[in-house]
Amino acid sequence: MSSPHPGALRVDVAALAGYRDRIDVRSPAEFAQDHVPAAANHPVLDDAERSRIGTLYAAAPFSARRQGAALVARNIATMLETAFVDRGRDWRPLVYCWRGGQRSRALTQVLNEVGWRAVQLEGGYRAYRRQVVAELARLPLHCRFVVICGLTGSGKSRLLAALERAGAQTLDLEGIARHRGSVLGDLPGDPQPSQKWFESQLCDALGRLDPSRPVFVESESRRIGGVQMPDALLAQMRIGRVLTLVTPLAQRVALLKDEYAHFLAAPAQLGACLQPLSERYGNATIARWQAMAAAGDWDGLVAALLEAHYDPMYARSLERNFPSSRQARVVEANTVSPEAFAALAGEVRATLDVAAEVTS
Questions:
Q1: Domain that residue 347 falls in
Q2: Do the strands 223-224 and 227-228 form a parallel or antiparallel pair, or are they unpaired?
Q3: Residue 11: in which H helix or E strand, if any?
Q4: What is the DSSP code (8-state) at residue 182?
Q5: Is 245 helix (H, G, I), strand (E, B) or coil?
Q6: What phi and psi values does residue 95 have, to the nearest 5 degrees?
Q7: How many CB atoms within 10 Å of residue 146?
C-alpha cells in the first residue's frame, strides 16, 4: 500500500478481495459496459458532464479543470449527504475510476478527510480488466469439468440447477450470459451483458470454484447468443468428462413450450425470429413454420424445429466440440418434473461428484 498523495492510500488489484464495499466513480455509461463485481456506481461526473468537460479540455485545459473540479465537488457533496450519510466510522471502501487518476483520487481524499479509511485502486478499472483477462486464461486450467450434453429441450439447464440444489459444484454459463444459447434464446426483458461484463462475472464465478471438486457445466459452443466464451474455458471443457442427458421427444416439446411460453402469446414475434433461418431452409419452410405459429400449433411447430433444425445442428456441434461424447455416460429423464430432475441430480451426484471427490 502506498500514499503518493496525502489522504489517498493506494492498493493494487490483488487486494480487491479484501474490500467488500467498492465504489466506481466512472460515468453510468462506463459502469454499464463493465465494472468490478459488487461495485456500486457513484459517478463524480455523469455522462453529460464527462462529455462536456472532455470537449472543453481539448480547447481550454485550464478552464476544463476548473469547471470539472466544481462539478466533482458538488457531486461528492451530494454523495456525502445522501448515499454515504449512514456509513459508520469504520467504513473501508475501495474507490476506482478508469485508470486510477483524478476522479477516484478526489473522492478518496474527501472520504479520508471525513475519517473513513478509503483506498484508491492503483491503475483503476484498466488494471482490473488486465487481471480479468489473465485470470480467464489461468483459472479454467484448474477445473475438472463434467459436461452435460443433450439435445435441445432435454433439460440440461434444469438438471444443472437441480445439481446445484443437491450440493454439487456448478457453473451456469447461460445464466451468466443471460441467454439460452439458440436462435430463440433471448430472455424477454433481460438483455445480454456486454462481452466485458460477461467476462467479469465469469471470472468472479470461476474464482469461487473449489479446484478439488468437479464442476458440472452445460455443453456450449464458442458463442452464447452475442457473447463469446474464453478460449481456455472452452478448451478445458472439451477435455472434460461428458454426461449425456436423453429425454423423449414428447417431453422435450413440453419442456420447451414451458421455457418459451412468452412466444405462445406473441406468434408474430416468433415468426420474425425464425425469418433469418430462411437462407438455410428456404422461404417455403419458414412460411410453413410461421403459419403453424399463427395457428397455435405449438406441439407440431416445436417438434418440426427440433427435428429439422435443432437436433441436426446440435449433433454436428457435439461431434465437433465434444467427440468424447461417444463414450459418455447416459442418463435418462423420462419426465421433466422438478421431482424427476431432483432425483436424477441425486443419482448423478452420487456416482460422479461424490465419487470424484473421494478419488481426487
A1: 144-359
A2: antiparallel
A3: strand 8-11
A4: S
A5: strand
A6: -115, 135
A7: 23
Dihedral angle over CA of 314, 236, 207, 38, nearest 10: -30
Q: How far apart are the first and last CA of the chain?
A: 38
Please give the Cα distance from 191 to 197 (Å, whole number): 12
Cell of 299: 406441439
Three-class SS state of 206? helix
Residues 178 and 210 in one domain: yes
- pLDDT tens digits for range 158-195: 999 999 999 999 999 999 999 887 666 666 677 899 99
In tens, the pLDDT along 232-271 reads: 999 999 999 999 999 999 999 999 988 888 787 778 888 8
Rounded CA-CA distance 297/68 in Å is: 61
Tell me the β-bridge partners of 148: 218, 243
One domain for residues 118 and 190: no
Domains in the chain, number: 2
Which residues are known catalytic residues?
97
CA distance 65 to 76: 16
Does one domain contain both 19 and 105? Answer: yes
Q: Which residues of 45-61 are buried (b: 16+ CB within 10 A; e: fewer)?
A: beeebbebbeebeeeee
State percent of the chain over pLDDT 70: 94
Task: Please name every residue paired with 218 in a beta bridge, in sequence order, or none if there are none.
Answer: 148
Please give the Cα distance from 283 to 17 (Å, whole number). 54
Q: Is the pLDDT of residue 359 over 50?
A: no
